[in-house]
Design a protein that fits this description.
Layout lengths: L9 H22 L3 H24 L4 H38 L20 H36 L1 H23 L1 H55 L5 H13 L5 H13 L3 H16 L1 H12 L4 H15 L3 H20 L9 H10 L1
Helix pairs in contact: 2-3, 2-5, 2-6, 3-4, 3-5, 6-7, 6-9, 6-10, 6-12, 7-8, 8-9, 11-12
């Protein structure tokens, strides 16, 4: 008995696919301004979900109160520092540019404290002043224009920081919504993944969550600890604008550049002004803060998932170049999730145990 042949209406299939593609493109076009903010919010919520549950248990099981507390914390940790940074850049941009563009205001320090160094103090002091008197002033005059160009470029980046502040506000808004309906959203995502790839899809979603939490613990928490400790050192040693420098230090730490880009100039400034005692104390403190990430970050990353450090570093740099400041958070997460999923897929097959020479011989015989 012949089986009935199924006839396909090709025009119907083509127009159906085109209609679905148009819906996808139109939907993407509509939500495109909110994609980065929503993606960032999803990462923040996944990473801090255990904290939300603990806060909720402390607040008599009230989810609304816990969401309010977490939203305030996000405002304090993300929006407020960025707003302070923008305000400080705008307020101080003109004096900074005027100062660095004025050659008379840039001069070599006296370094009178060098005389107090035993044995080599006087000789070092005389050699230093000989260098300044013979060629130091010309050297300062040559590099002074570059100071002005650098300061002007930094001021122009305030517009990009303002865009980052908008993404911060969107992140806080979406985070509050996800905190309130986290279980339902999570189950919907897992249901969609199961519909796409059955059990493997569900496992992929769970592995992605582990990777996101690992990046949050390893990158953001480490940066927060280093910037807070570095900011304490700046405030105690009497460095001006310690709050602004602490925010800048946090950005550098998230970018994997470290806190020393802020601490070393502060140490130089203290010695420049002759405050050698606080300069030496800040130098010792900076050595502790600068090396803290060598053991803290790997330990925190492995608490969430075992991820290579080079992967995190590549994600931070690539994300910064691709998405701007928000890429500091999105870049490493994307690479971490991809790495975890590919690793899980590769590990489903057994490792090759055949001698490589035998494999080559078998290929030659084919």
């Amino acid at each position: 008995m012949k089986q009935p042949q199924h006839r396909y209406d090709l025009p119907t299939i083509i127009f159906g696919v085109l209609f679905i593609a148009m819906l996808i493109v139109a939907s993407f076009w509509v939500v495109q301004p909110f994609i980065l903010g929503f993606a960032w919010a999803g990462m923040v919520v996944i990473a801090t979900w255990p904290v939300l549950i603990k806060v909720q248990n402390l607040l008599w099981g009230r989810r609304s109160l816990a969401v309010l507390v977490m939203t305030i914390l996000l405002l304090l940790l993300f929006v407020l520092p960025v707003a302070l940074l923008i305000s400080s850049v705008v307020d101080n941009s003109a004096p900074i540019v005027d100062w660095v563009n004025a050659p008379a205001k840039i001069h070599a320090p006296d370094f009178e404290w060098l005389r107090a160094i035993p044995l080599i103090g006087n000789k070092t002091y005389n050699s230093y002043h000989l260098l300044v008197n013979t060629g130091g002033a010309a050297l300062v005059a040559k590099i002074q224009p570059y100071f002005g160009q650098t300061a002007t470029w930094l001021v122009t980046q305030a517009a990009h920081i303002g865009r980052f502040l908008v993404h911060c506000m969107l992140m806080v808004l979406f985070s509050a919504l996800l905190y309130a309906r986290g279980e339902q959203v999570g189950m919907a995502i897992r249901h969609f993944a199961v519909r796409l790839a059955s059990v493997r899809g569900d496992a992929a979603v769970l592995l992605a969550g582990q990777a996101i939490r690992a990046v949050a613990l390893g990158v953001v928490v480490t940066a927060l600890v280093q910037s807070i400790l570095g900011g304490i050192g700046l405030a105690v040693s009497g460095i001006p604008a310690a709050t602004l420098l602490t925010v800048l230090m946090f950005v550098f730490c998230v970018a994997q550049l470290g806190p020393l880009l802020v601490l070393i100039p502060a140490i130089i400034w203290l010695y420049w002004t002759g405050d050698t005692t606080w300069g030496t104390l800040l130098l010792v403190w900076s050595c502790v803060v600068g090396t803290l990430d060598n053991f803290l970050r790997p330990a925190l990353i492995r608490m969430g998932a075992d991820l290579p450090l080079i992967l995190i570093l590549s994600g931070v740099i690539g994300g910064l170049l691709s998405f701007g400041m928000i890429g500091l958070f999105i870049g490493p997460v994307v690479l971490a999730v991809s790495y975890r999923l590919v690793s899980a897929w590769v590990n489903e097959a057994p490792e090759p145990n055949t001698d490589p020479e035998e494999v080559v011989k078998d290929l030659e015989q084919l």
